[in-house]
Amino acid sequence: MSRDLAKAMTWVTLGAFLFAFMFMLPKLTSAAVTPPQVAFLRYLAGFMIILPFFLQAHGARGALPELIGPRRRRLNKLHGLRACFGIASVCFGTYAVTHIPLANAQAIAMTNGVFAVILSALFLKERLTIADATAGIICLTGAIVVAEPDISAAGWISLGAAAALVQAFAWGAEVVLLRFTAVNDTTQRTLTLVNGSASLLLLFLTASWWDQLPAGDIAILLAMGPVAIIGQYCNIRGFRLAAASELVPIKYSGVVFAALLGIFFFDEWPSLAAVLGAVMICGGAGYLAVAKAR
User: Cα-Cα-Cα-Cα dihedral of 60, 62, 66, 67, to 10°?
Assistant: First the structure.
């Protein structure tokens, strides 16, 4: 193993841990916190962290024209759309982790790669291969196993598991939009616009029915912002040092971290079905990464 690959794997492993930790944080708050409030505080904190760097790069006078200049109008619409999917991902992810075990929610959310492949084929005209279809079937079957549906019951799948699946779809849509915008825009501008527009939209949505939150809950949820930014930084550093096909399987270590966090903080021991389903999801993703590398 080369030194660069070892460094890359370390960075991506740290990123996987940080994202698992981030989605655990809403589970530490009181039951009174609603998912839109969680999303607002997460994006507000992210925006406040990235904004000083953007202002330093472009200056106080040049920042606004750089953000809303007419030549970037189409990109801005795509950033706004990505912010909407990001809000959905955080909201449904919050509902999921507060209603089902953390490891189960994380495992189902990891099927986002399947949805990214499908959406890329539909909207970016990327070719859908037999390997894509095989990996997708394995991952989605694993998600069903993790959800542990009871066909005989009236509500045969829990709302928490369904929310995690919606989160996976929204996350996959984010990935597709990021693929398109990343080659046409800077990282600083992208993060500033996505976090800022998400914060503004959520401010309007939650202003009329905002529930008073304990200071401890606000502090916990604000921590999601910096954790997410640092996690993104770790992934960027890792993927600059090694090929994506070598690192995607490492990214799925987040399922293991979620299980360990669930055990340590909430005494949530994964069931046999959850372990089997998680192995199927990670195996399908690994197979896809290897197939893409050929």
Answer: 30
Q: What is the dihedral of CA 216, 220, 222, 226, to 10 degrees?
A: 150
Nearest CA-CA partner of 137 in 111, 169, 156, 167: 111
Measured between alpha carbons, how far is 204 from 125 in angstroms, rounded to an integer? 35
Tokens of 132: 């894509």
The encoded tokens of residue 237 equal 């550093």
- In sequence order, which residues have a C-beta less than 8 Å from that of residue 63 and are 6 or more positions away? 54, 55
Tokens read off for 80: 């706004």
CB-based burial, 247-274: b 16+ in 10 Å, e otherwise? bbbbbbbbbbbbbebbeeeeebebeeeb
- Backbone dihedral region of 145: left (phi > 0), alpha (psi from -120 to 50 degrees) or beta? alpha
Give which of 78, 51, 30 is closest to 217, Cα–Cα.
30
The confidence score (pLDDT) of residue 129 equals 78
What is the Cα–Cα distance from 221 to 51, expressed in whole angstroms?
Answer: 19
Token readout for 146 is: 């993790």
Q: In this predicted model, what pLDDT tens digit does every residue of 132-146 receive, in sequence order?
A: 788 778 888 888 888
What does the DSSP assignment read for 221-243? HHTHHHHHHHHHHHHHHHHHHS-
> Which stretches in the chain have pLDDT values below 70?
1, 149-156, 182, 243-249, 288-294
What is the pLDDT at residue 281? 83
Q: What tokens does 227 get?
A: 């954790």
- pLDDT for 200: 95
